[in-house]
Amino acid sequence: MQMKFLRILILLVLSIHSHAQSRHAVLLDMTARNSELTDGNCFSAKQILTISGIDYSISTDVNSAVQNAFILCSSNIESSSFSQVERDTLTAFVNRGGVLVATNVKDPLLYSLFGVSNYNYSNSRHFLYWTVDANDKALHWIDDVNEQTLQLGDTSYSAIYGTRGYSVSTGTVRATFDDLSAALVQNNFGTGFTYVFGMSWKDVVLRNESERHYGADRTYSNGFEPQTDVFALYIRAVYSKHIPFAVWKHTSGLNSKATLIITHDVDATTGMGMMNDFAGYERSNNITATYFVTTHYMHDSLAKNFYTNFVDTLQQLVSYGMEIASHSVSHVPDFADTSIVHPGTCGNNEFTYQPFWNAHYSSGVTLCGETEVSKNLLVRDLGVNIRAFRAGYLAYNPNLIRSLENNGYEFNSSHSANNVLTAFPFQAHYGLSSDSALSSVYEIPNCISDVFTSNPISDENHISKAAIWTDVVRRNAMNNAPTVLLIHPNRLWKIDGEQYLLLNMPAGMRTRTYYQYGDFWKMREKSNFTTTLIGDSVLYITIDSASLPLNSELSFVVDGGQALSHIFVQDYLGNPIQMLQKNWDDSDKIIHSRNFSEQYNLFNYNYNAFSETYSPYPNPFSSTSEFEIDLTEMSQVILNLYDVTGRLVKKDLNENMYMGEHTIVIHGEGLDAGTYIYELIVNGRRTKGKIVLTENR
Predict the structure, then answer these.
(1) pLDDT tens digits, residue range 308-328?
(2) Is 156 exposed, middle or buried (0-12, 13-18, 19+ CB in 10 A)?
(3) For the stretch 515-546, what's the b/e string if a residue is b when 16 or more beta carbons lie within 10 angstroms of its beta carbon?
(4) Ordered DSSP codes for 613-640
(5) Would the CA dihedral through 415, 420, 425, 428 be positive or negative?
(6) Mean pLDDT across the chain
(7) In this model, does residue 546 exceed pLDDT 70?
(8) Which of 29, 124, 170, 570 is the most buried (most CB within 10 A)?
(9) What was the pLDDT predicted at 20?
(10) How far apart are CA 247 and CA 506, in angstroms?
C-alpha cells in the first residue's frame, strides 16, 4: 500500500514538473546539410550509439536537437554546415548546460565553443593515445593497454586517412596523436561541455567494418582489438558523466556479465567423425553450440565427399540440440577472389552445382551456389532452419552479402573481430564498401579460434592456447562485449581447451548460440526507452509502445543506481513493468527480468580416458615392431620415437590415413640398442610406452 501511494505521489509530481530538463540524447544528422554523397558518417554515429545503449533519437533540425540534453553530431562541422542563427543556438545550448560532441570542427566561428584555436591536417598519423586520468569519469572504460593506445593504421603505410590535430585555447586535451597534437579536446563552456574529435566517425567505424583500415589491426585473431568499441564506450561514459544516473541497454542478456558464443567449423572428415564428442560434452554442461557445416558432396583435390555418408551423424548432432549453420559447399581457399568466384545464378542443387578445387585454383564456384545449395541441403537433410553462413578460411568475397540476403540468411560469420576492430554485431554494407547501401544481414565477428598462424595449436600446447582465449574473453567481458569462439572439432584434446576456457572465464559469463545472440542484438537495437529523474532519488524508465511486450532478455544498467531510493520501470501509459534489481559493479544497478543461473562445469571431460591403447609387437624387437590399428574414419596418424632423456630420435610417420586396418611400423634401423619411448597419435588420441631394441640386425 505504501509503495502504491508513493508511486501515485511521484506521478503527480512528475506531471507538475513535466517541463523538467531532458535527459535524452539526439543524433544530429548532418548528411544533407553537408551534401554528403552517402550516409556513412551517420551510420557510423548510429552504430556508436547502438553499442553504447543510451536513449537517443535522430534529428536533422538544430532547434529540435537543442531541446535535449546531449547532442552527437554525425559529421564534420564545415564553415557552411550551420547558419549564424544555428551557431548561436548551439552556443546557447551548451552555455545553459548542454553537452555537444562533434568531429572535425573546421568552422573558425565555433572554435571558441570547442576550446580550440586552429588545426593541422595530416594523413600520416598512425596512433591515438588516450590520457590516463582516474578522476575523469569519461575514461572509465578505457583501462586496457590496447584501449589506451589505438593504432589507426600500420606504420608501413606512409599515408592513411586524414586527421586533424587541434591547437588548444581553453580546452583540455583528452587524447593525442603520435605527433603530440590534440586528437580529442574537452571544453567547459558556461555550464555545459563540448568535445571535438580530430577524425570522422566513418573512419573509426565503417572503415573498420569494411576492412579498409590501413592495417590498423595489430593481430588478425586471438587478440584484443577494440578500436571501434572504445569510441562507443567513451561516448556512453561522456553521457554518464554529465547525465545523472544515466541508463543504457545492457549488451548481454539478463544479468550476465558478457556472452560467450561457442561455434564449430565442421569442414573435414575428422570433424564429421568427432563433432558429436564435442556436442556430447557441451550437452552434458548445459551448452548449446553452433555447428557451421560444410556440405562437401564432391571429390576434388581439397577433400573427398565427407558430407553424404555423414548425414546420419549430423542428425545425431541435431538430436543433441545443437544449432546448425552453413559453412559453404566447396570450402575453397580462393573464395574471396572476385575474378574467380562470381555471384552466379540461383536455382541450383547438388547435381547441377559442381564446384571443384584442382590444388591451385577453383572452378565452377559461385556465391549463389555456395549459399543456396549448402542451405537447401542442410534444411532437407536435417530439418533445421539455416540462418547464418561462414565462409571457409573466413575468405570474405565482397559480393557475399547480397547473395546471403537473396537466399534468406540473417547473419554472416565471415569476419575476424580483430580485423574489423569490434567485438559487437553490426549491419553489413553491400560490396564490403563504406560507400555502398546497407543490407539486412548482421555480422557477428569471430574473436578467438583454434587457428594460430605461428606456433599452431597442438596436443602439447593446447592449454596455453586456451589461456590466450581466456585472456581475450576476460578483456572483452570488461566491456560487456561478446566473444565468438571458433573450434574445428577434429582433435579431442581441443575439448580440453574448451573446458579450460569454460572453467576460467570471468564469473557471470553466459553461453548463447549464434542465432540466440543475433536475435538478442536485433531485439535490443529496436527496443526504445526514456528516463525521468525525480529529484535525486527516484528514477523512471519508460518503455515505448513499439518495444512492448518487453523482451525478457533485455536488461538495463543504471549508472550509480545504488544511490537511488527507487527505480521504476513502466510502459508508455504508466503501467508498471515488474523487473528485478541487483547491485552491479561498484555502484550501479542492473534491471532485469530474471536471474541468469546457468552452470557450465557439471561434467569434467578427460579425453585420455577415451583413448584406445595400442601396443607394438614384438617388444623387445631387433629390427621392426608393429602396431595394428583399425581406423573408423580418415585420421591423422603420427609415430614418434624418443630416447629415455626425452630427445626425439625418429619420426617414423606423419600422414593422413583412410578408414580401415593399417600396420604401423617402428624401424630400428640406425638406432643403438637400448630402451626407447614410442608415441603413437591417432587423431589426437595419444598412446605412449616403452619399447626395447635389442641388437640391431
Answers:
(1) 999 999 999 999 999 999 999
(2) exposed
(3) bbbbbbbebbbebbbbbbbbeeebbbbbbeee
(4) P---BSSSBSSEEEEEEEESS-EEEEEE
(5) negative
(6) 92
(7) yes
(8) 29
(9) 44
(10) 24
